[in-house]
Amino acid sequence: MGHNHHHTPEMNNKQSGAAGVQPWEPRTKLVAGIIFVFGVISLHSLWLLGISLVFATIFALWGGLDAGQLLKKLAVLLPFLALMSIPLVLGGGVPPDPERSVLAAQIFMKALTAMTFTIFVFTNQPIEEMLEALEHLKVPAAITTVIYLAYRYGFLFIQEMETTLRALKARLFTPRLHWSALPIYGELAGGLLIKSINRSETVYRAMTARGFRGSVPVGKPRPIENRDLGKAAFPAGFLMVLIIIEQVVL
Amino acid sequence: MHIADGVLSTQVAAVTSGVTAAVLAYSVKGIKEEEIPRTSLLAGFFFAVSLISIPVGPSTIHPLFAGLLGVILGRRAPLALFVGLLLQAVLFQHGGLTTLGANTLMLSIPALLSHSIYHGMAGRQIILRGALVGGFSVTATVLILIVLLVSTDPAFTEGTFSVINILVVGHLPLVAIEALVTGAALKLIAKAKPEILGVQEAKASANRAR
Question: ipTM of this model?
Answer without folding.
Answer: 0.88
